[in-house]
Amino acid sequence: MFKNYVLTTLRNISRRKGFSMLNVLGLSIGLAASLLIMQYVKDEFSFDDFHANKENIYRVQYDRYRDNELVLQCATTFPKVAPALLADYPEVQKACRLYLRYGGGVIRYDDIQMKEDNLFTADQSFFDVFSYSLLKGDRATALKEPNTAVVEEETARKYFGNADPMGKRIKFGNREEYEITGVIRSPENSHLKFSFLLSYPTLVKVVGPDAEQAWGWYDFYTYIQLSPGADPKALEAKFPEFIKKYGAEGDDKKIKFSLQRLTDIHLNSDLLQEARVNGNGRSVYFLSIIAFFILVIAWVNYINLATARAVERAKEVGVRKAIGAGRLQLMGQFIAEALIVNFGAVITAVALMSATIPLFNTLSGKALTTSILTDPTLWYTATVLFLAGSALSGLYPAFVLSSYQPARVLKGSMKGTHEGLLLRKMLVVMQFVASVALIAGTLIVYNQLQFMQNRDLGVDIDQVLVIHAPGVTDTSTYVSQLRSFKSEVQRHPNVQSFTASSEVPGNLIYWTNGGKRIGGDQELPSIVMYRMGIDHDFFGTYKNKVLAGRVFSEDFTADTSNVILNRKAVEVLGFNTPENAVGGQVKIGDDTLTVVGVVENYHQEGLKSNFRQTAFHLLPENHSYYSVKVQAKDIDQTLAYIKEKYSQQFPENPFDYFFLDTFFQRQYQTDRQFGQVFGFFALLAIFVASLGLFGLASFTASQRTKEIGIRKVLGSTVPNIFLLLSKDFLKLVIFANVIAIPLVVYFMDKWLHTFAFRINIGYWIFLVSAVLTLLIALITVSFQSIRAAMANPVKSLRYE
């Protein structure tokens, strides 16, 4: 029986090669696209999934309030929190702290010296809480002693080649020495990325008791492991009393701690001081919806074409029934056809997916390899899609075809039913609702990305070369070395200006303190102030707009006791205008300062973040970055000159640099990748929908051959017939636009809410989407419509 089904299916495929190719091609592209997206989604959801106790591990989040208003949400807390939680609450089984050496540092081994950014100090309990693979060393003792370190596997190869790193000694800057006591493997799918783990006792030795007991120094990632069955919400309810016990007076009204599940961090956390740039859960969910849309479009194509061919195959069904075929046998035949077509589509889809992995990696930033083809999950998913697709795309056509009455069919009175026509129209509308939504969504994503990349930042970051300040210095000579370096660099004709600062645009500002206005009509409470150390040339180099007062100048020796505020700081400190702020006094941390100038807000971070209240301090000796404004010509020559002068002044330091415009745009990397992936798969979805529309138009034209012949004999022109065949499809596309618009507004507005600065969804987006879908539909059906309209009527009417 099954052999007969297969042979009959192959004959039908051979008889209608065009329809069969459209079916298999549409299904294959749809399945390949969906499988690729599913691999992407699986990878995003796999972050931190390798930890044995992942369900019970949480990170403590720190929120700060002012007058019941949330002013700070941070991924880090205080050194005191981890040991205190472990001591006070029996449900906390284990606790661990990580301290990121902000700005990294120079690591030296023999003649090798390199700048490392991902330097973490870690508690001894790190290996108790987390399940990272320790390739060499003892998990119980690797981070126990001062001046010991664990090196990441790939980092070890940079410094030690193929030699055994164990026992080797490295130097951090010109300060601490560390003995390598372990080699760790750091998977890419982890929200933590580190090159070295330095032992926590070393930090205690260098900093003192504050590294253990400080309350207020919020630079420490705090992780706890709860006992199985413990309720994290119940523990969170105890945090106010915990804060009262260990914090300063009133902290319970200013501070809130909450718990983030470890596996939620990558996709659902975007806090201050994240350990690395996380993914975007909303974007991943949107891609999942695209995968679903593509599958629906592909399966709808099959159902549409199969049911459209029902009239054509009616006589076949009538003859089979007349010679004794039962309904179940007929249904079995058509379901077998669906199984065979879907099986061929799945195999083709896997081959297509394998071939397009490099392109997908380029678009998405992932590093998928063909090894995913051996992943059982992939084949499990493919099997589910095969069975689901066969059922969805086979059952209804089988039911319709097997229900035909042989007497009516063999008399030639069996035509397309009203119900069948209505179903096909509904399915076409469904396809184009998805297509319109994807086109409009792509336009919105593209315009938001363009808005972010082209918006005036309030500072000039073009042609700015940024050099990391030396990590290895002699404090007694550093100032003179910096002045000499600056003087030498500024002599080059292509160098326009030079400035040193603690941060550059594109970086988070980690130096914060409470700040408030002194005097004024009313006493306002302290607020969080973001502080930057700069030199005299910072505002000139970056071309900030001065709103009131002046910038720092070497003509004013007292400027180290003065401060410059941005507009946001002026507003939150309670000054009426920028002019009103000049001459006023503020207290920031322990410093009482006089405001000498106000500058316009600028985007220190990307457009996902709001402006932050920022205070600029004149600190000529305390800098992390040197910014050099250069001309666009002879960049390589200018760079070589600057590198030579840097090596002369700071010979023990690598010349580590970047161009600021590229560095700033890196913040949008995940958004750009999302936009590229979204757009690529939107195009695929539209292509698959167009294949189905092409096939349906072809079938419609063939069914109306005699009607077209009669109309031509009676005087209809080619444009008249083209309009006749096209207008029904175009009406469906217009109706699809009406349905799609509110869906797009709802879902894309949610995505745009992740940006502090965003575009508005304009009517023009839907106008463009409507025009594009109409054009796509028109082009798709026009070939078949014009072909039918130009056919010789004699051929279609010769047997009438």
Automatic annotation (TrEMBL):
<feature type="domain" description="ABC3 transporter permease C-terminal">
    <location>
        <begin position="289"/>
        <end position="406"/>
    </location>
</feature>
<feature type="transmembrane region" description="Helical">
    <location>
        <begin position="761"/>
        <end position="783"/>
    </location>
</feature>
<dbReference type="Pfam" id="PF02687">
    <property type="entry name" value="FtsX"/>
</dbReference>
<feature type="transmembrane region" description="Helical">
    <location>
        <begin position="677"/>
        <end position="701"/>
    </location>
</feature>
<dbReference type="InterPro" id="IPR003838">
    <property type="entry name" value="ABC3_permease_C"/>
</dbReference>
<feature type="transmembrane region" description="Helical">
    <location>
        <begin position="21"/>
        <end position="41"/>
    </location>
</feature>
<feature type="domain" description="ABC3 transporter permease C-terminal">
    <location>
        <begin position="680"/>
        <end position="793"/>
    </location>
</feature>
<keyword id="KW-1003">Cell membrane</keyword>
<keyword id="KW-0472">Membrane</keyword>
<feature type="domain" description="MacB-like periplasmic core">
    <location>
        <begin position="435"/>
        <end position="634"/>
    </location>
</feature>
<feature type="transmembrane region" description="Helical">
    <location>
        <begin position="422"/>
        <end position="446"/>
    </location>
</feature>
<feature type="domain" description="MacB-like periplasmic core">
    <location>
        <begin position="20"/>
        <end position="239"/>
    </location>
</feature>
<feature type="transmembrane region" description="Helical">
    <location>
        <begin position="284"/>
        <end position="305"/>
    </location>
</feature>
<protein>
    <submittedName>
        <fullName>Putative ABC transport system permease protein</fullName>
    </submittedName>
</protein>
<dbReference type="InterPro" id="IPR025857">
    <property type="entry name" value="MacB_PCD"/>
</dbReference>
<dbReference type="GO" id="GO:0005886">
    <property type="term" value="C:plasma membrane"/>
</dbReference>
<keyword id="KW-0812">Transmembrane</keyword>
<dbReference type="InterPro" id="IPR050250">
    <property type="entry name" value="Macrolide_Exporter_MacB"/>
</dbReference>
<dbReference type="GO" id="GO:0022857">
    <property type="term" value="F:transmembrane transporter activity"/>
</dbReference>
<keyword id="KW-1133">Transmembrane helix</keyword>
<dbReference type="Pfam" id="PF12704">
    <property type="entry name" value="MacB_PCD"/>
</dbReference>
<feature type="transmembrane region" description="Helical">
    <location>
        <begin position="377"/>
        <end position="401"/>
    </location>
</feature>
<feature type="transmembrane region" description="Helical">
    <location>
        <begin position="729"/>
        <end position="749"/>
    </location>
</feature>
<feature type="transmembrane region" description="Helical">
    <location>
        <begin position="334"/>
        <end position="357"/>
    </location>
</feature>
